Each structure stands twice: as structure tokens, then as C-alpha cells.
Amino acid sequence: KVKVRVYDPNAASPPKISQLPEVNLKQGESMEIDLRKYISDEDTPFDSLKLSVKGNNRGYVNLDEAGTLTLTAPDDSNGWDSLTIEVTDPDGNNASAQMKVSVTEGNPGNTGQPLSLKVFVTPNPVNPNLLRITVIPSNNLISSPSVEPDLEDGIKVKMERISDRIWSGVLILPQKASGRVKISVSAKDVNGNIKTDEVEIDLDKLISVRNDNSSGGKIVPSLDVFPNPVSGDSVKIIAVVPGFAAYRFSVKVFTLSGKLIASLESERFNTTENGHEAVWDLRDRSGEKVANGVYILTLDGIGKVISRKLAVRR
Which of 19, 63, 124, 234 could be disulfide-bonded to 130 (CB atoms 3.0-4.6 Å)? Predict the structure, then answer.
């Protein structure tokens, strides 16, 4: 049985999103959702559509080029969240739909099942030589995963624990790095299970796309905090913002209950090749050191809100 679909290049039908599923996760649990099942366009192949996801304040969200949405719930909070899935065709027609995500208490990370790893590589939208590596294990790890790219300089990526089942680090590429690079990831969970995995990326493709963006194309806003978790007295905040927002954006810091404790206006940031950088001394608006715990940082004033979690552990 052969199914043939014909696209009319002169048509201008907008994309459509059918009813998205309601997602229920336990703390620390991951789930993959194939958005191809819910998105259609009468005159545009799926591969030509641009997908994005907005509005996440909990856990980790990754949307790859194939349309697979990966959700990982936080392991330190629960409740409801709402994601907005947006799709745009080459003519600028767009559609959006809401996806509800529920996080309930639980500890699925120590089930005694074999250890598996999900590895995501995300290029920095401004500096093509910075790649964020995110590792999501199925079980709690006994220590940081080992992440080693097969580069001549023998570079290792320092991974930081975002939560029990989310680890993240930044790979700084050599200036002349090119071609295909394999990244080896190995980890050991608290039950003694050992897992080694490997991902391969094409640096030429990643870097060329990012260079197009940094030379006048569309800038993708982002917010990063280093180190995270933090045990010292300060963190570096890097914000990537569109040109129109360069003088009016701000980064706000909230407790998990939603209380605003600090605000860094654009004047506090210095412009660098990585974006807009500032140092926060981990003090609230009254000058007191913030307590140990998890805080939410938001990037505002860019037409939407981007958030990042920060763990303070002195």
C-alpha cells in the first residue's frame, strides 16, 4: 500500500494543530511526544515547518528538528504548567496550541531498571563555539556523568547537576573545529548500573546556522547562569536578547512560591561576544544573602518570558 501526498506550491493554507495530549509526569520522569501526530499543513511538508515551544517554568524541555518534544519533570516541585506549541510555515502563516503538563510527587529514578541516557546538544545562538550539552538519565546518578568529545585537544565537559536527573554543561569548541564530532557520555547510577552512549554532531551545520544568526539574522533569546548549582557568593548571568530589547530587558529572581527577591536591569549588564553579561551577588533587594534552595530567574522585556532555575547550595 502506497500513500502519495501532493503539495500545491501556490496554496496558502495555514498549518493546523489538533488536540494536544495532557501530559502527566512524576517528579524526575521524562517523556517523549512526537508532534508530527498533531501537526499538519495542506500545502507544506512537515520538514519545512518551523516549530517552537514557549512558556515552560518547570523542568527541562527539548524540541528537536524531527518534531520530537522531550519533557523532563523537576524533582523538587510539583503542580501544573502550560506549554505553547507554535508552528509557522514558510509563508509566515502560523498556528499555536496549549499543552498542559502535570507534575506529581514520586521518585521514578530508582526503579531498579537498566540505566538509559538521553543526550541533547544545543548551539549557542550568538557564539557558535559554545554548545550546551544536557544529559538526562533514567535513574539517579552516583556522580556527574563523563562527557568527552573526540577532539584533538582532549577536551572534557564539566557537567553541573540541575536536578537529580538533569545534568548540563557547556562545550567550548576550538576556534577552527569543523566536521563531524562524536561525544561519548558515560554514567553510573546509584544502583551500580553503568551506561555509555554516544552522539554525533555536524559542527559545520551547527556553526554555519549560528553564524548566519550572528551576522544579522534572527537572534534567538536565551538565559544562562554559571555556575549552576552555585556554592560560592555570586553567579554570572548571560542574556541573549534581540536588538530592540538591548536597553529595556531585565532579569528577575523569584522564589519557588513566586516572591520577587531581586531584579537586574539592562544597565547592570555588559555587552560581550556571548551576549549581555552581569554578576549577581546572591543577595536580595534588602542586601541579605539568599538562603539555600532553588530560585527561578526570568528574562523579561523581549516580547516573551524565558526562565531558568538556579540552585544555591552553600
Answer: 124
> Which domain-ending residue is among 75, 104, 133?
104
- 11 belongs to a structural domain: no
Report the alpha-carbon angle 254-256-258, nearest 5: 55
Residue 1 belongs to a domain: no
- Mean pLDDT of residues grouped by 10 in the chain (314 residues)? 50 84 84 91 81 73 82 77 86 88 72 82 72 87 92 82 83 82 92 90 60 47 89 92 71 89 89 85 94 91 80 90
Determine the pLDDT at residue 31.
85
What confidence score (pLDDT) does residue 256 get? 86
* Count of domains observed in the chain: 3
- Kindly report the CATH number assigned to the domain that includes residue 57: 2.60.40.10
Residue where one domain finishes, among candidates 206, 240, 273: 206
Residue 229: give its domain's CATH number: 2.60.40.1930
Cell numbers linked to 296: 527561578
pLDDT at residue 183, rounded to an integer: 93
**Where in the sequence is the domain holding 90, given as residue range(s)?**
16-104
